[in-house]
Amino acid sequence: MAIRTDVVRLYRQVHTWTGILTGLILFVCFYAGALTMFKEPLERWITPPAAVTPATLDRAEELVAATRALRPEVRDFTLAVEPALNGEAPLRLTWTEERFDPAPWAATLAPDGSVAVEQLNPSGIGLLVDFLHRTVGIPGDLDIGTTVTGIASALYVVALVSGVIILLPSLVKDFLILRVTRNVKRLWLDAHNVLGLISLPFHLVIALSAVVFGLHDHIYDTLDRVVYGGQMRAVAAASSPFRTVSKDMSPAGMLPPKEFLARVHSLAPGFQPVSLEYHDAGTGAATVRVWGHDPRYLVRREGFVLMGAVDGRIIDTEYMPGHQNGWSATVSAFFALHFGSFGGGIVRWSYFLLGLAGAALFYTGNLLWIESRRRTERQAKGRPVVGPVEQSLATRLLAAGTVGVCLGCVAGLSLTIAAGKWLSGLVDDLHAWHWGIYYAVFLGACAWAFLRGASRAGVELLWASAAATVAIPATSLLGLVMPGLWLSDGLIGVDLVALAGALAFAAMARSAERRALGGPRDSVWAAAGERPKSEMGMQPLAHPAE
Predict the structure, then answer these.
(1) How far, in Å, CA of 130 to CA of 29, rounded?
(2) pLDDT at position 164, please?
(3) How many angstroms separate the Cα of 166 from the Cα of each of 169, 309, 361?
(4) Is the Transmembrane helix keyword given for this protein (predicted)?
(5) Using CB atoms within 10 A as the burial measure, which of 237, 426, 431, 546 is most buried?
(6) Which residues pair with 316 in a beta bridge?
(7) What is the pLDDT of residue 178?
């Protein structure tokens, strides 16, 4: 396909600068996003096994009644039914006493009928990776971080479109070609293009949905002023299914949990219940959301049906898989395509690998810009095409920032996951320790990269990332012989993936070492110091990175 040279040049500049402005932000979002696909297994990997006696749903009504008698002020709670249905865990009610409280309370039923209430101490690793994915780790107000991510995602859409336009003239000739030669820049460019083209539909869906997720408050505010004249809340309330819910807060009995599950099964036989979420329990206004999933439909994480807790009537099926109207089904599909909450394990693993590939896409994009700066510097200073040139301060800072941010994120997450199993049961707030370890490693890696320079820090932080990642399976192995540690049953996949990641980081560290010693001397990736004796007196081979 023929496109004018000046048009391609313009889109190349657009692609370059939108990529540079958003690359580091999106690396963190994509790397953490890949881990969110398996945040539940990560939580279980860190949580010590408990000696419990599985209970069936036959005693669910007894648990609800006994808990409400003990804690009558608790009217909003969740009854987990999936573990009980599978015989994996006892029945348990959970609730929070403050909004966004990371340490919920839980009630379980003993064989003698007594209720045990305790405050849980979840590891919090799932919350951490989700927070990083949504806000790139910007501390403080959640809205600030999501807005930054939304703006970065909008620029990300521009980068995707401009990147496709750049590739159109050579798409047929260079499609899926990966040239492994001494020209390192060409290798990185081919890898960047292959990753981008293969995963283009995935990236478009993620980018467009992330714009909506990150900027939805601003979008709604604009719609409220422009379309609804400031009455959007009133319009939404008028169409809400809760308008038909009784406002009677006087005491009232509720149907047993098994009755809700039976009615949902009659409504949708393929629906698999996960939990029952009660609101205003014990009153005439009590409602129950039966959450669950149906692999035949695209839903956002889980769907639910809203029911009256007193009479069991169906109040709303707007989010029930297979019972949605056209608009709700479209919105749910949009969420499902972003979260990968469909298709079971195949889609989950695919999204995990695509997330890692996306992180690599942004990393290689920055490397390409950094390598291209040597030629740009020569042309700007009127120097010949070959020959050494001094790298600009901006180039050296971007190189150090790329190394520090990307590898700091990798090492920080790996180390805090491994540390979770060592600290479990030894610290009061494991959630806070996870966050403290991550930010200490991340900020330390950034400082180290700027102090040591991109070349030395790149090699050192890659080895550090490999060591932090291999600590995950090493901790599991030590659980076989050390008291206080344990080997998590059924979660060997966590250890195997971490081992594969550690080997990949070690291979990258070896490659970076060779590049530092054997590459062009005027590259920001060149080792500071003498060349190996075998290269003394030899000129670089025509700057192969160009």
Answers:
(1) 9
(2) 80
(3) 7, 58, 16
(4) yes
(5) 431
(6) 306
(7) 54
324 contact partners, CB below 8 Å, separation of at least 6: 317, 318, 332
- Min mean pLDDT across 61-70, 129-138, 250-259, 328-337 is at 328-337
- How far apart (Å, rounded) are the C-alpha atoms in residues 103 and 120? 6
Collapse the DSSP code of 274 into the 3-class scheme (helix H, G, I; strand E, B; otherwise coil) and give the result: strand
Total number of residues shown for the chain: 546
Enumerate residues 6+ apart whose C-beta is below 8 A from 195.
Answer: 357, 358, 360, 361, 364
What's the predicted TM-score (pTM) here?
0.85
Alpha carbon of residue 435 to chain centroid:
15
Task: Report the SS3 class of residue 106.
Answer: strand
Tokens of 464: 């550090």
Residue with tokens 């000046």: 6
Q: Amino acid identity, residue 456?
A: R
The Cα–Cα gap between 269 and 274 comes to 14
Listing DSSP states for 362-419 in one string gives: HHHHHHHHHHHHHHHHHHHTT--SSS--PPPHHHHHHHHHHHHHHHHHHHHHHHHHHH
| Selected residue with higher pLDDT from 107 and 341 | 107
Tokens of 149: 């991510």
| Angle 473-435-102 from CA coordinates, rounded to 5° | 105
Q: Which residues does residue 105 pair with via DSSP β-bridges, in sequence order? A: 95, 119
Distance CA 46, CA 415 (A): 12
182 vs 545: CA distance, rounded Å: 7
CA 138, CA 124: separation in Å to the nearest integer?
A: 17
Query: Would you tell me how many other CB atoms lie within 10 Å of the CB of residue 33?
Result: 27
* CA nearest to 353, candidates 225, 195, 470: 195
CB environment 292-330: b (16+ within 10 A), e (fewer):
bbbeebbbbebbbbbbbbbebeebbbbbbbebbeeebbe
Q: Are 257 and 81 in contact (CB under 8 A)?
A: yes
Measured in degrees and rounded to the nearest 5, phi and psi for residue 131 equal -65, -45
Whole-angstrom CA distances from 264 to 240, 274, 313, 382, 480 are 21, 12, 10, 75, 44
Indicate if the pLDDT at residue 381 is higher than 90: no
What is the distance between the alpha carbons of residues 310 and 250, in angstroms, rounded to a whole number? 12
Q: Is 42 exposed, middle or buried (0-12, 13-18, 19+ CB in 10 A)?
A: buried
Coil vs helix vs strand at 545: coil
Neighbour count for residue 119 (Cβ, 10 Å): 10
- Where residue 539 falls among pLDDT bands split at 50, 70, 90? very low
Residue 279 has pLDDT above 90, yes or no: yes
pLDDT tens-digit readout, 158-189:
988 888 887 776 655 555 555 555 556 666 67
Q: 124 near 430, Cβ under 8 Å?
A: yes
Query: Which residues neighbour 434 within 8 Å (Cβ) at sequence distance 6 or greater?
Result: 123, 124, 125, 128, 416, 419, 420
